[in-house]
Amino acid sequence: MDLEEFLSENGIPPSPSQHDHSPHPPGLQPAASTAPSVMDLSSRASAPLHPGIPSPNCMQSPIRPGQLLPANRNTPSPIDPDTIQVPVGYEPDPADLALSSIPGQEMFDPRKRKFSEEELKPQPMIKKARKVFIPDDLKQDDKYWARRRKNNMAAKRSRDARRLKENQIAIRASFLEKENSALRQEVADLRKELGKCKNILAKYEARHGPL
C-alpha cells in the first residue's frame, strides 16, 4: 500500500512539505508577482517619459569647433570687391573733366578708370636734342617743310596725350583720396561695432559657458 493512500484512509493530513509541493487546484491560479524584473526596469529607463518628447540619447549634440558643417547650410556667397560701391561725396570740376576727356568720346569717369602699374611708373626726363643748323638753301626745299610739319604734328600729339594722361591720373588720385577717407571711416565704425559684439559675447560665455 502506498503512503499517501494509507494517510488518506486514516484521515491523517499529509506533511507540510508535501502540502507545499502539491499542485494548485485547477480553478485557482497563483498570484502574479508585482515586483518588476531587471529587464523590465532597463526597458522602462530607456523609454521616454512622454511619447512626444524624445529621449536625451536621441537629441543631436551641437556642432563642435573643427567639425564639418552640413552641406545644406546657408552660407553667404563670396562678394566681388570690384562690385562694391562706396558712397563718396566727390564732384570734380566739369572743366577738369573736359581737360581729362578725349574730344568726341565719352566723358572721363574717375570712379571707373583704372591705371596699370606700367602706366603709373615715373617717366624719365628726356633731354631735348641739340638743334642742328640748317642752311638757308635747304630750307627752300618742299621736302624739308613737309618733314618739319609732320614732326611738329607728331610732337604736338605726344604732348597732348601726355597732358591728357596726367590730368586723368590727377583726377583719379583726387577721387581715390576721398574714397580712402570714406573707407577708413567705415572701418573705424565696423571695428567699434565689432568691439561691442565681442563684449556681449564675452558676457554671455562668462554666464552660460563657451558656445
TrEMBL record:
GO cellular component: nucleus
Keywords associated with the record: Biological rhythms, Coiled coil, DNA-binding, Nucleus, Transcription, Transcription regulation
GO molecular function: DNA-binding transcription factor activity, RNA polymerase II-specific; RNA polymerase II cis-regulatory region sequence-specific DNA binding
Domain BZIP: start-end pairs: 141-204
SUPFAM superfamilies (UniProt xref): Leucine zipper domain
InterPro entries: bZIP (IPR004827), bZIP_sf (IPR046347), PAR_bZIP (IPR040223)
SMART domains: BRLZ
Family that this chain belongs to: Belongs to the bZIP family. PAR subfamily.
Cellular location(s): Nucleus
Coiled coil: 173-207
PROSITE patterns in UniProt: BZIP (PS50217)
Species of the source: Octodon degus
Region ranges (Disordered): 1-110
Protein name, entry field: Hepatic leukemia factor isoform X4
Superkingdom field: Eukaryota
One BP annotation, GO: rhythmic process
